[in-house]
Structures are given as C-alpha cells and as structure tokens.
Specification:
Helix content: 25-40%
Order of helices and strands: EEEH
Distance between the termini: 38 Å
Strand content: 15-25%
Strand order of the largest sheet: 1-2-3
CATH topology: Wheat Germ Agglutinin (Isolectin 2), domain 1
Structural class: alpha+beta
Number of strands: 3
Shape: elongated
CATH class: Alpha Beta
Radius of gyration: 14 Å
Number of helices: 1
Number of domains: 1
Oligomer: single chain
Length: about 60
C-alpha cells in the first residue's frame, strides 16, 4: 500500500485489518520500497498475530 497523508501524518492502510495507521505502527522492512516508506504491509499488531498463528501451527505439527 502506498503512503497516504491524513491530518498531516504519514501513514498507510494495513493489508490485513484494512485500517489506516501512522507509519510508526508498521515494522521497518528494507525490502519494501520508498513508496511504502520502507515499512511492512501489515501493521505491528497484525504482524504479531500472524507470527503467533505460525508458531502455534508449527508447534501443533511437531507434537
């Protein structure tokens, strides 16, 4: 998602929750270009949820 300025604050829409958030709410990711502010496409909250789901799925496979 591209950077959007709302109320003078740079931000973008999270690809998972579809909510606009300031860039500080997205983890830094140098693989994403300047149009995305070098930030990940998911916000930190959604990123944590996805990581937790992956860990739980991995742990359930090993048991």
């Amino acid at each position: 998602m591209a950077i959007v300025i709302e109320k003078g604050v740079k931000g973008k829409v999270c690809s998972t929750c579809d909510i606009w958030k300031p860039l500080t709410e997205f983890p830094e990711d140098p693989t994403h270009g300047p149009l995305q502010g070098h930030r990940h496409c998911r916000c930190k909250e959604c990123h944590r949820i996805k990581a937790r789901e992956r860990r739980q799925a991995k742990n359930s496979k090993t048991k």
